[in-house]
Design goal:
Layout: E1 6-12, E2 25-30, H1 36-44, E3 62-67, E4 71-75, H2 86-102, E5 106-114, H3 121-132, E6 137-142, H4 149-164, E7 172-173, H5 182-197
Parallel strand pairs: 2-4, 2-5, 5-6, 6-7
Antiparallel strand pairs: 1-3, 3-4
Length: about 210
């Protein structure tokens, strides 16, 4: 993907703060510390684009970014960080569910799982909730560089079995450090954007 322009649009806590839904939109969701912000920066070839907190669990908004004036990325707060008060977790959950259920231009959720970890109940609950709401997802196993190629294949098979059974949906192994999986993930994003919202790929280069 050749990145021509990137732009932070807004941070939102309710629908009235969302940017206009005129482009295909992709939401990034996963547990705290899954490497979500690093993955987004890797996808966009930007070191300082993503608005992050130095403390896990402190991001409290949905941050929206416009890419090439063709796509929107929505960075959702990470879930499951133990030190966040329960009432704050419930508020985030409501905010995220409200966004996912009602954002009409949402093309897919990029569902992130740490490749080194066994899928948790929270991961399974999120996947089951997305399925119940008929929200498509693109599964990505982050931090792939932490494992050998053999270990990566083993862990990806576990993740695929945990979430997809015999459906055969492939999980993309991704490393923000080496850019492993970057081309594959962009291909999935562009394919979903094309299917959902007309021509998007005219200004992109998946080999860049």
């Amino acid at each position: 993907m050749k990145i021509v322009s990137t732009e932070f649009l807004t941070g939102a806590v309710s629908p009235r703060h969302y940017p206009a839904g005129v482009y295909p939109e992709f939401a990034f969701a996963g547990r705290s510390n899954v490497g979500k912000s690093s993955l987004i920066k890797s996808l966009l070839c930007r070191k300082k684009l993503v608005r992050t907190s130095a403390t896990p669990g402190k991001t409290q908004e949905i941050n929206f970014f416009r890419i090439n004036h063709k796509l929107i990325f929505a960075d959702l707060p990470g879930f499951g960080f133990a030190k966040v008060p329960r009432q704050v977790q419930k508020r985030w959950q409501h905010m995220i569910e409200q966004y996912l259920k009602n954002r009409k231009n949402l093309a897919a959720v990029i569902f992130l799982i740490d490749i080194r970890r066994e899928p948790t109940d929270l991961d399974r609950d999120l996947k089951a909730w997305l399925d119940a709401c008929s929200i498509p997802c693109i599964p990505v196993a982050t931090k792939a560089d932490k494992l050998s190629k053999t270990e990566q294949k083993k862990q990806i098979r576990k993740i695929e079995a945990a979430f997809f059974g015999e459906t055969g949906e492939a999980v993309i192994g991704y490393s923000s450090k080496s850019s492993q999986g970057r081309k594959e993930l962009w291909s999935e994003i562009l394919a979903r954007a094309e299917n959902g919202a007309g021509s998007v790929a005219s200004s992109v280069d998946t080999d860049a």
